[in-house]
Amino acid sequence: MALPGTSSGLHIVHIAAEMAPVAKVGGLADVISGLGKALQKKGNLVEIILPKYDCMQHNQINNLKVLDVVVQSYFEGNMFANKIWTGTVEVNAGLPVYFIEPQHPGKFFWRAQYYGEHDDFKRFSYFSRVALELLYQSGKKVDIIHCHDWQTAFVAPLYWDVYANLGFNSARICFTCHNFEYQGTAPAQDLAYCGLDVEHLDRADRMRDNSHGRINVVKGAIVYSNIVTTVSPTYAQEVRSEGGRGLQDTLKIHSKKFVGILNGIDTDTWNPSTDRFLKVQYSANDLYGKSANKAALRKQLKMSSANASQPLVGCITRLVPQKGVHLIRHAIYKTAELGGQFILLGSSPVPNIQREFEGIADQFQNNNNIRLLLKYDDALSHMIFAASDMFIVPSMFEPCGLTQMIAMRYGSVPVVRKTGGLNDSVFDFDDETIPMELRNGFTFLKADEQGFDSALERAFNYYHRKPEVWKQLVQKDMKIDFSWDTSASQYEDIYQRAAARARAAT
Ligand code: ADP
Question: The complex's ipTM?
Answer without folding.
Answer: 0.99
